[in-house]
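Pinned message: reference record for Membrane protein
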Amino acid sequence: MLKLIVKWLLLASALLFVAYVYKGVEVSSFGAAMGAAFVIGLLNTVVRPILVLLTLPVTLVTVGLFLFIINAFMFWAAAQVLDGFGVRDFAAALVGSLIYSVLGVVIESALERLFSKE
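Predicted structure (tokens):
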């Protein structure tokens, strides 16, 4: 449970970092970043697998590159649902989701080492 809370806080911080380094993404506060991180995680858990399955032929033809578009759509959809978290347009969602995904991989890797059961 502690790992989940720490991951949520770090992903919210990652969203603030994305907004800081890329002007196409705006986050009004840390609370808004926490809400956005939660909604993005929820969308990635519930909606993304369905979209991946439905777009499997396109994903295969593009050798997996279409998954970037699906990630950008999840990022953009979260911005449409929430106040305090905004994305200028779909291109900004693509860039923002790429930065956020890289930070998410780094966070996940660090947490695996920190919370390992060795």
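Pinned by admin. Summary line: The first strand starts at residue 25 and ends at 27.
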